[in-house]
């Protein structure tokens, strides 16, 4: 109900005051975003402009398509935390901001996945495991390939040179497998 002593406007005059369409004000009244500041007098609405401005700011989603709702979503999460075990129902604006924010986040994730910038975690784990296994096998096979030759070699420089060559060869073969493409999991089996 409008408070006494403040400027009381009709629906159209309040719309002019807000620089919006009268239908936007009527919609705000009908959806409950403006309720304390509105009094119905027959078929017309009388609106306390000062109180309505406060309600408008608190309850109306002002998202224009270019910003982020994260601050509104965070505020909504803080508002709805139960103090005494009772869950508060958020306002329409806060609920809508949360919904829009989460929908935009989902669309962004789907786009990143389609663009190849996002990969499922289970695929990354499997490929990482296979790559680690391949690395382990390549390094352990060095001893099998050159242990007899190294045992017969008396020159420490030649032993070092041969080991360095074998390690480098094993790592280069791994590098080739990885560089074959972004999906190297078939090469690792």
Characterise the protein shown here.
- With 189 residues, the protein is mainly α.
- The protein folds into three domains: 52 residues; 45 residues; 59 residues.
- The chain is built from seven helices and three strands, in the order βααββααααα.
- A three-stranded antiparallel beta sheet has the order 1-3-2.
- Strand 2 and strand 3 form a beta hairpin.
- Helix 1 packs across helix 2, helix 4 crosses helix 5 and helix 6 packs antiparallel against helix 7.
- The longest helix has 32 residues.
- The radius of gyration is 34 Å and the shape is rod-shaped.
- The protein starts with 7 loop residues before the first strand and ends in a 10-residue tail after the last helix.
- 11% of the residues are buried.
List the keywords.
189 residues, 3 domains, three-stranded antiparallel β-sheet
Tell me, briefly, the overall form. Answer: rod-shaped
Instruction: Enumerate the strands of the largest sheet in spatial order, edge to edge or round the barrel.
Output: 1-3-2
Which structural class matches the secondary elements? mainly alpha
Number of helices: 7
Q: Please, what is the average pLDDT?
A: 80
Bin the helical content. Answer: 55-70%
Distance between the termini: 73 Å
Order of helices and strands: EHHEEHHHHH
Largest sheet: 3 strands, antiparallel
- The figure for the number of domains is 3
Percent strand: 5-15%
Rg computed from alpha carbons, rounded to a whole number of angstroms: 34 Å
Unreliable residue runs: 64-73
Number of strands: 3
């Amino acid at each position: 109900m409008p408070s006494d002593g403040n400027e009381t406007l009709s629906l159209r005059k309040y719309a002019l005051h807000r620089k919006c369409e009268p239908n936007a004000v009527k919609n705000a009244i009908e959806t409950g975003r403006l309720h304390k500041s509105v009094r119905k007098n027959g078929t017309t609405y009388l609106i306390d402009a000062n109180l309505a401005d406060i309600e408008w700011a608190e309850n109306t989603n002002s998202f224009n398509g270019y910003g982020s709702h994260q601050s509104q979503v965070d505020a909504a999460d803080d508002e709805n935390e139960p103090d005494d075990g009772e869950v508060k129902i958020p306002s329409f604006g806060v609920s809508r901001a949360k919904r829009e924010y989460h929908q935009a986040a989902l669309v962004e994730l789907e786009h990143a996945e389609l663009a190849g910038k996002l990969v499922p975690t289970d695929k990354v784990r499997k490929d990482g495991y296979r790559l680690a296994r391949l690395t382990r096998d390549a390094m352990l096979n060095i001893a099998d390939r050159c242990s007899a030759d190294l045992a017969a070699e008396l020159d420490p420089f030649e032993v070092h040179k041969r080991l360095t060559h074998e390690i480098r060869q094993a790592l280069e073969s791994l590098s080739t497998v990885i560089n074959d493409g972004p999906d190297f999991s078939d090469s690792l089996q």
